């Protein structure tokens, strides 16, 4: 994988997200999607962990980590658990087009996610860091590959993948996600903010 920014001593890559814990049925669905998508792009690899991003990956100086986490904890303290439905297959590329992702976009729960992002953005602004995308497409990435392969994956491939999701037994239950905590990863440190 290609680093989005150079590693610098004392600078920690930091990311705020909702962790998604997978069930066995989800891995079965993922396997079906991957085997179909690989007929279009053979280099696709499954993600090792699954999450929904609430921030871009930003760089924090080491001495800012504790105050940043404190601010996040205060801002997120009032939020309650909520549900999302992530059932729309989409193709994404990162900003500099060095990676392509297949993800499941959220079709229900967008409003609550925007409220969370708005609070996370306020913390990022306090630390003079870039905020989240202006019109975000909230999603759980399933697989990735190097390069811009969106041309191969959109169109026919995307329709076939959506058919697999729509026809998968239990997909309605499986893709209805209850979020119970927010996490922040900074370098090798993880911080958890349970939702009420």
From TrEMBL:
Entry's Gene Ontology cellular component terms = nucleus
Biological process (GO) annotations? Answer: U6 snRNA 3'-end processing
Q: Name one GO molecular function term.
A: 3'-5'-RNA exonuclease activity
> Which keywords label this protein?
Hydrolase, Lyase, Nuclease, Nucleus
> What InterPro entries does the annotation carry?
Cyclic_Pdiesterase (IPR009097), Usb1 (IPR027521)
Matching SUPFAM superfamilies: LigT-like
- Record carries keyword Signal: no
Reactions accelerated catalytically: a 3'-end uridylyl-adenosine-RNA = a 3'-end 2',3'-cyclophospho-uridine-RNA + adenosine; a 3'-end uridylyl-uridine-RNA = a 3'-end 2',3'-cyclophospho-uridine-RNA + uridine
Q: Does the keyword Nuclease apply?
A: yes
Entry function = 3'-5' RNA exonuclease that trims the 3' end of oligo(U) and oligo(A) tracts of the pre-U6 small nuclear RNA (snRNA) molecule, leading to the formation of a mature U6 snRNA 3' end-terminated with a 2',3'-cyclic phosphate. Participates in the U6 snRNA 3' end processing that prevents U6 snRNA degradation. In addition also removes uridines from the 3' end of U6atac snRNA and possibly the vault RNA VTRNA1-1.
Q: Can you say what this protein is called?
A: U6 snRNA phosphodiesterase 1
Query: Which organism does this sequence originate in?
Result: Columbina picui (Picui ground-dove)
Source organism lineage? Answer: Eukaryota, Metazoa, Chordata, Craniata, Vertebrata
The coding gene here is Usb1
């Amino acid at each position: 994988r290609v680093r989005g920014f150079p590693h610098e001593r004392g600078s920690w890559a930091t990311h705020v997200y909702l962790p998604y814990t997978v069930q066995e049925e989800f891995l079965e669905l993922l396997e079906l999607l991957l085997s179909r998508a690989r007929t279009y792009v053979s280099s696709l690899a499954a993600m090792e962990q699954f999450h929904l991003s609430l921030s871009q990956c930003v760089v924090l100086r080491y001495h800012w980590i504790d105050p940043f986490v404190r601010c996040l904890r205060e801002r997120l303290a009032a939020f309650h658990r909520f549900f999302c439905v992530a059932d729309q297959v989409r193709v994404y590329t990162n900003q500099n087009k060095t990676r392509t992702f297949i993800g499941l976009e959220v079709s229900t729960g967008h409003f609550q996610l925007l409220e969370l992002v708005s609070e996370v953005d306020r913390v990022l602004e306090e630390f003079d860091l870039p905020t989240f995308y202006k019109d975000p497409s909230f999603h759980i990435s399933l697989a990735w590959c190097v390069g811009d392969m969106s041309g191969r994956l959109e169109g026919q491939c995307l329709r076939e993948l959506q058919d697999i999701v729509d026809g998968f037994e239990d997909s309605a239950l499986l893709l209805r996600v209850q979020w119970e905590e927010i996490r922040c990863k900074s370098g090798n440190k993880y911080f958890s903010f349970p939702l009420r």
